[in-house]
Amino acid sequence: MTRKQAVLRTASYLLTFAMGGAGFLWVMFNPRRQALHDRIANTVVVVAAKAAETFSLRRSR
């Protein structure tokens, strides 16, 4: 994550909370499971255990 993305993502939390938390509801409708602050900053949350499992499966092929 770049510094710009980190700043945008953190600042976007304020917008999400100002909307009464509605920005978190976007997760249910977004195929990449991004909340409003993720979409604004163009970031995604990666679950480390799943990423490691996927990586190890790809390497063993």
Structural description of this entry:
This protein has helices spanning about 5-20, 35-40, 50-60. With about 60 residues, it is mainly α. It has one domain. The longest helix is centred in the first third of the chain and has 16 residues, at about 5-20. The radius of gyration is 14 Å and the shape is flat. The mean pLDDT is about 85.
Q: How far is it from the N-terminal to the C-terminal residue, by CA?
A: 29 Å
> Tally the helices: what do you get?
3
How many β strands by DSSP?
Answer: 0
Order of helices and strands: HHH
Strand proportion: under 5%
- What does the average pLDDT come to? 83
Count of discrete structural domains: 1
Q: Which descriptors apply to this entry?
A:
61 residues; mainly alpha
How is this structure best summarized?
This protein is mainly alpha-helical. Helix content is 56%, strand content 0%. It has one domain.
Task: Draw up the topology in text.
Elements: H1 3-18, H2 36-41, H3 48-59
